[in-house]
Specification:
The structure is a single chain. It contains no helices and 5 strands. With 62 residues, it is mainly beta. A 5-stranded antiparallel sheet has the order 4-3-2-1-5, with no helix packed on it. The N and C termini lie far apart (30 Å).
């Protein structure tokens, strides 16, 4: 499976599609198919880009 989040860069705001209660998180890094996101209600989470497509959020939407 391809890297579903290869376009994400540090600073981009995202939501996890399966965990909306985590809130809007900020991408910290995107290296080798692993995206580290800091979510306000869950903390720092490393996401496997081959399994989860994060939802990019516009800054005026959160």
């Amino acid at each position: 499976m391809d890297d579903l989040n290869s376009f994400l860069e540090p600073g981009i705001m995202v939501r996890h599609p399966d965990c909306p209660d985590w809130g809007v998180g900020q991408v910290q890094s995107n290296i080798g198919g692993r995206v580290t996101v800091n979510f306000p209600d869950e903390g720092k989470v490393v996401i496997d880009s081959r399994r989860v497509m994060l939802i990019m959020v516009s800054p005026d939407r959160f």
